[in-house]
Amino acid sequence: MKVFNLQCSAHHLFEGWFASEEDYSSQVERGLLECPLCADKTIQKLPSAPRLNFGAAQAPQAASSADKQAVVTGDPAQALQAAYLQLARRIVSETEDVGERFAEEARKIHYGETEERGIRGQASPAETEALMEEGIAVMPLPLPEGLKGPLQ
Q1: Would 33 be classed as within a structural domain?
Q2: Full domain range(s) for residue 131
Q3: What digits encode the pLDDT tens for the residues 52-105?
Q4: Count: domains in the chain
Q5: 95 has which bridge partners?
């Protein structure tokens, strides 16, 4: 496996894992690569030292406090991106996706018709405004497309 540092046209940084350089080039040409934050398909490979992964000799470990500190003391834009992704992952893991039924489910929870729980989904601007006028706390938050489906 080859691991490349990639960047979209909005300067979001992320990693891509590929079987080979040709695999990377093929995926770019076919429009299969996109930014996990903004879904931009204009991706460029950044210069970096090659890193080859020959297998999973060890399970990945949780980020150490030193790793977390490195994010805090690094590039502010990269630290903000990392914090946003961490928040987005937590929201996805701790809420139920109710999809297009968001406004309906939010009302049921607010009025005690169903159990209280964290939900996420889609609502139109008009539905969102109506919920807020009813005193139902909602917060529009765009989530990266990559977090909405199963992760590979």
Answers
A1: yes
A2: 95-142
A3: 556 655 544 544 444 454 445 567 777 887 888 888 888 888 899 999 999 999
A4: 2
A5: none
Full 3-state SS string of 65-83: HHHHHHHHHCCHHHHHHHH
2-21: pLDDT as tens digits: 888 999 998 888 888 999 88
Query: What's the predicted TM-score (pTM) here?
Result: 0.53
